[in-house]
Design a protein that fits this description.
Bound molecules: zinc ion
Region (Disordered): 83-119
Helix content: under 10%
Biased composition (Low complexity): 95-113
Order of helices and strands: EEEEEEH
Strand content: 15-25%
Number of helices: 1
Length: 119
């Protein structure tokens, strides 16, 4: 399963197609819109329309896998403009829903200069 066009937004930094999922800890995580069979994140659309994400590593029993779960890459891992993912970086991404997150009035000007360093 992959996100629909209403769920997909674009990374403000590299303009790649991404979507947001909520992790088990309640954080919002940007994922690449295109599923990746090698991705470390399992995500599926949950009740209420939010995508739910969890780490592949958290699954110890294959029987625990949800039939609709699909593997994705975290966008922080593939973003061409950002090399590290932090919660502080999230406001730099455009949110899919105006109610979920509002753009910062300063337009994100406080974000540190971009670096192209790769891990
Ligand atoms: Zn990006």
């Amino acid at each position: 399963m992959r996100p629909n066009t209403l769920e997909i937004t674009r990374c403000r930094d590299c303009h790649a197609e991404i979507f947001f999922a909520v992790t088990e800890s309640g954080a919002r995580q940007p994922l690449d819109a295109e599923p990746d069979p090698a991705g470390p994140v399992l995500a599926r659309r949950g009740a209420g329309g939010w995508w739910l994400a969890r780490a592949v590593q958290s699954v110890t029993d294959p029987n625990e896998l949800h039939p609709l779960e699909t593997r994705f890459m975290p966008h922080f891992a593939t973003c061409r403009k950002r090399t590290r993912g932090t919660q502080e970086a999230l406001p730099g991404f455009e949110a899919p829903s105006p109610a979920a997150a509002r753009p910062r009035p300063d337009g994100g000007a406080a974000v540190a200069p971009l670096r192209r360093r790769r891990r």
